[in-house]
Every structure is written in C-alpha cells, then in structure tokens.
Write a structure and sequence with these properties.
The longest helix has 13 residues. The chain is α/β, with parallel strands linked by helices. The protein has a seven-stranded parallel beta sheet with strand order 1-14-13-12-2-3-4, sandwiched between helices. It is 30% helix and 21% strand. The radius of gyration is 18 Å and the shape is globular. The chain has two domains: 118 residues, HAD superfamily/HAD-like (Rossmann fold, 3-Layer(aba) Sandwich); 97 residues, HAD superfamily/HAD-like (Rossmann fold, 3-Layer(aba) Sandwich), CATH 3.40.50. β12, α7 and β13 form a beta-alpha-beta unit.
C-alpha cells in the first residue's frame, strides 16, 4: 500500500480512471475545489475518466446533480450508476410487472416504461432506492416481513449503507436491503461492490482502469474483486479511522490519498 501525495503520481499509468462521487468528488452539498482541479488536469492530459456511483439515478440525472453542486458542465459528462444498472436490468425479462417502490420521488425515473406500482400483496418485486436520512431497517419491519413471507425479490438501487451529506452521515437503501438479505430474503444488488457494474465500466472505458473511492466495502473491495487497481481516499466515509481498519476489513488498497488532489 503506497501513500500518494497526488493522483498525478500514478494516473499516467492507466487508460482510464473511475471516480466514486460522494466523499470523493463532493460532500453531498458542494464539489471539492481540489477534485475539480484534478478532473481538469486529467482532461488536459488526455486521460479518460468516468463517475461510478451507487446513486439511484440515471446517468443524465447524475450530470445535472454534479453541475448543481458546482462542477463545470464540460467535466460532468460520463457516469455509470446503480440507477442505470436497475434500468438495464428491468429492461429485460424475469421480474414481473408489478412492484412496490420505496424511495424518493426523484429516483422513480430508473424504472422503464411498462411497470406498474401496486400494493405489496400484488407485487412481483420490491424496488428500494432510499430510506429516510435517520431511518434504519426497524422502521420498515412490516415491509421486510411481508416481502419475506411472499418470497419477493428486493432490488437495491443504492447498495451504500451510509453516505456523508455535509457534516453528517445519512442512511441509504443498502441498509434496508442488507437487513432483508440477512433475514433470508432474495436481495438483488445493483451497483458497487458487485462485479456487473465494474464490467459495464470496463466496456465503457476499456484498457487498464484505476478506481478512486472512499468506501472500503463498495469502492475498494468491489474494484479489487473485479481486477482493478484502487486508490483509497481517506477524507470520505472513513475519515478519522485508524490504519487498523484495513486489517479489520481485510481490504488493502494499492494506493491511498489524503483527499482527491492532483
């Protein structure tokens, strides 16, 4: 594990760079100026990059969200998301057409045309894109127990458990779906750390890729499981954690950065 001072020390060794968004590019409220400078430098150097996020949104919505947080339009293009993975999965066959939706209205666009929201007793599957900022699985006991009793697949459109928003941590869809899986439920994960989304990124950028992220569970372990080199950003979700966390999680990134900086 090599501690870097800036991404410029290793970026030229790769054909493309993948960036997590929350905790790496922005804090949920505003983009980090150093991250924007880093993307500008990559663009100037001709090194392709893409955002690889567990956001439960379509790719074009991610671009708009980055721009709202202060990123120049020219730097905001190119994203693969959990929401996009859900849209692709549901554009195929095998899920039925009736579903229960749990999440913010702003994420409903990940569902393709042809599906109908129904009551839980009539549903073919449950789609979870988010829960309340301070909520946990205990707040959804009825949904979990009923879905489990019916043997319904529960699709997770954001496998993150928690993300930073400003100066606080907020709950994500992954908390609920993780609880369902631990109950014995049929959990369908769309996004990091699962290999399919990294395969999508490989198809999009090609060549030797480097993943830059702040979550050992989703970004680092997921990318390593897909055969990618990784940079762990220390200023994100694990900020303040001691070196022992790598041993505790049994996850060791190839490189580390104090924050995303060129």
């Amino acid at each position: 594990m090599q501690n870097l001072k800036g991404l410029s020390e290793v970026a030229p060794q790769y054909d493309g760079i993948l960036f997590d968004i929350y905790g790496v590019i922005h804090n949920g409220v505003a983009c980090f100026p150093e991250a924007i400078t880093c993307l500008q430098a990559l663009t100037a150097a001709g090194i392709p990059y893409s955002f690889l996020s567990n956001m439960p949104l379509r790719a074009h919505q991610v671009q708009a969200s980055l721009m709202r947080r202060g990123m120049p339009e020219a730097l905001a293009a190119g994203a693969l998301t959990s929401g996009e993975a859900v849209h692709r999965a549901l554009s195929g066959e095998g899920y039925g057409k009736g579903y229960v939706f749990q999440g913010p209205d702003s994420t409903r666009g990940i569902v393709p045309a042809g599906y109908t929201e129904v009551a839980l007793p009539e549903a073919d599957f449950v789609l979870v894109s988010g829960i309340g900022d301070t909520e946990g699985p205990e707040d959804y006991a009825e949904l979990l127990e009923t879905a489990l009793a019916r043997g319904l697949p529960m699709i997770c459109a954001n496998p993150d458990l928690k993300v930073g928003h400003g100066d606080k941590m907020v709950s994500c869809a992954g908390l609920l779906v993780d609880a369902y899986e631990h109950m014995g439920g049929d959990a369908r994960w769309m996004g990091k750390p699962h290999k399919a989304v990294f395969a999508m990124a490989q198809e999009m950028l090609g060549g030797k890729l480097l993943m830059v992220g702040d979550s050992l569970r989703t970004d680092i372990a997921g990318a390593q499981g897909a055969g990618l080199d990784t940079v762990f950003v220390r200023s994100g979700i694990h900020v303040g954690a001691e070196e022992a966390m790598f041993a505790q999680e049994n996850v060791y990134p190839k490189f580390t950065l104090p924050q995303l900086i060129w």
